[in-house]
Request: fold
Amino acid sequence: MNIRFEQTFVNNLLGQVEMIDVMANYGVEVKRGQGLNHFYVAKFCCGKSDMDNGRIKIETQKFMCMNCWYGGNAIDFLRTVVGMSFYTAVVELARMANVELPVVDPKELESLKRKQDAFQLAATFYAEYENDYLVTRGIAKEVIEKHGVGYAPGGRALRSFLEGKGYTKEELLDYKLINSKGMDTLFHRAVIPVSRNGKIIDLYGRSINDENTSLKHLYIKGDNILGGIDQINPKHIVLLFEAAIDRLVAESHGVQNGVDAGGAGKFTKEHAKLLKRKGVKRVFIVYDGDAAGRKGSLKSGQLLSDEGMEVWVGELPEQMDPARMIMECGKDAFVSALQQPKTFEKFKMYQELSKYSLTDVEEYLKVMKLKQIFLGE
Ligand SMILES: [Zn+2]
Reply:
């Protein structure tokens, strides 16, 4: 078939299936490793029957035989080992990843690219505007510059700018960059771009005046974002914050390698899988010291554990969030509050136990029962 897939589609697709699963599906013996690599039996290239030579580098999801140096990605495997055409290999990966094949209509491709460009242009436009709000919240100038953080002046500033670049009102409305009244969607907000694989996929607008608005947080698209994902080093512990502000304040004070899902309850299974695909093995959850934060930690921690990651939960003092704690008590106080994190399993038990009152005999007996179940005591 004569169909060209967009390179970005193919790259994204490759990021959504695990090489080890592709091999296993086609009868190659595989073994999950605990470190940087998974293993496979290099029978198809060298006729070996042990796992001494076949390596899948988890970070890149590429395979390579240490005996003959034959290797590649999942598409290379399906083409050269299984014998598929490029087209069939892509279709097969899409099936495995449960991803819909793109409708390869050149007009549609063009309009997707226009939309992508509009978000990029909007981020660049907003980055030109400075506002002290984020600086007063404790975010360093270098961090603001590094992440292309800016400010939305509101009115029709962005609309005029993008119309000047050839976009129509209808397009901007469709992208949700302007509202039905024709005004910019982001109005008097600090703007933090959200990128994935080097492309701006969304814009987060943080209201700069908490008293004046019921809507502190506003995402243009708001679906499935994980702020900071492009910048993390998967080999180190990844910190999971509730909010972008927490992540950026922490980074400004030397606490690096954070991501945020834009809310305590917003972390999803997709996010957990995304981190896993990036090769992340250890996650430290640092949500706010309140009921929503604890509930979110339980949910996020479970999703991460289910993907086989090691998870810890740090607990901040009541009513403290990371940004506030760093600003009010200093970075050292923040770091020392997190010195003794609980493993996720332990955190879960404490949350369960906290539902009971130990001054009541009936409750005491229930707790004893729980201890038996959890701890075998
Ligand atoms: Zn080989």
Remarks:
- The mean pLDDT is 89.
- The first strand starts at residue 30 and ends at 31.
